[in-house]
Design goal:
The chain is α+β, with helices and mostly antiparallel strands. About 25% of the residues lie in helices and about 25% in strands. The chain is built from 4 helices and 15 strands. Strands 1, 2, 4 and 5 form a 4-stranded antiparallel beta sheet that branches. Strands 3-12-11 form a 3-stranded antiparallel beta sheet, with no helix packed on it. Helix 1 crosses helix 2 and helix 3 runs antiparallel to helix 4. The mean pLDDT is about 95. The structure holds 2-amino-4-trifluoromethylsulfanyl-butyric acid and cobalt (II) ion (2 copies).
């Protein structure tokens, strides 16, 4: 483990890696349609990363077999893309990818709708996105890390959703998973961990329709809600600046080569 506090030069590289991750997510959207398998989506992501000079940080990580995670409907996180998992109208899917470029990792995920989805599914997905964005908006120097969880948990609860406590955000940079852990629920242990300029971490709340209790499939990765109800997640990689924070995993204007 290294300490995830980085220099302005490192920020340029994180920006570069974040841009590729965001472009890959921009690209995959058009393929999320009824009839496609999650393994096909994974292959498209893998080809996009290769063509853009980046590598999946997931492939081979602790034996993980694919280039991204595809978490459909009741899957909370870490769904493994499969050839026999065919998307159908009304499904919701989280596509989560971490990529390495120029020695730096960036990590982001979004929800996608397969055709038209139910109002209740869309409301869950939108709320997960709102929770992530609200948490990002309060990040800056001097703010305790516990504020992230406070914001997310209270917003989710106001809409009647629970927040998964089994999976957390993380420091990121020269490695994919680093200290500190980022809780998406209020925990006083993070009251004393204060954001400083240069700190880089993910915010990736997982919201559940009902209970956040999870079970892991026999593949050792795929985490589902125990009650079979829907779950949704959004994720960005951010860096703390002097003024507030910067989101790395957004698509940039072309021209910055990250050096
Ligand atoms: N992208 C995931 C995260 O948000 C990490 C996935 S690790 C994998 O932390 F091995 F499951 F791909
Ligand atoms: Co991720
Ligand atoms: Co992450």
């Amino acid at each position: 483990m290294t300490n995830s506090v980085y220099t302005p030069k490192d920020f340029k590289r994180l920006r570069f890696a974040g841009d590729i991750v965001s472009r890959a997510l921009d690209h995959i959207g058009q393929f999320v349609k009824p009839g496609i398998s999650t393994a096909e989506l994974d292959a498209i992501v893998a080809a996009f990363l290769k063509a853009n000079g980046a590598e999946s940080s997931c492939l081979g990580y602790r034996g993980y077999p694919k280039s991204c995670c595809t978490s459909v409907n009741d899957v909370i996180v870490h769904g493994i893309p499969r050839g026999d998992e065919i998307l159908k109208t009304g499904d919701i899917i989280n596509i989560d990818l971490t990529a390495e470029a120029k020695g730096f990792h960036a990590d982001s995920s979004r929800m996608f709708y397969v055709g038209a989805v139910s109002d209740h599914a869309a409301r869950l997905c939108e709320t997960a996105k709102d929770c992530m964005n609200s948490a990002i908006s309060i990040c800056g120097p001097g703010v305790p890390l516990s504020e992230i969880g406070r914001v997310i948990e209270s917003m989710a609860a106001a809409k009647g959703y629970s927040v998964s406590k089994d999976f957390v955000g993380h420091g990121i940079g020269k490695v994919m998973h680093d200290d500190p852990q980022i809780y998406h629920f209020y925990d006083r242990r993070l009251d004393s961990v204060i954001m400083v300029p240069g700190m880089v971490f993910t915010i990736e709340p997982m919201l559940c329709e009902c209970s956040s209790a999870s079970v892991i499939d026999s593949d050792g990765w795929t985490a589902r809600t125990k009650d079979g109800r829907l779950s949704a997640q959004w994720e960005h990689t951010i860096g703390i600046t002097e003024e507030g924070c910067e989101i790395f995993t957004v698509t940039k204007e072309r021209g910055d080569d990250g050096t």
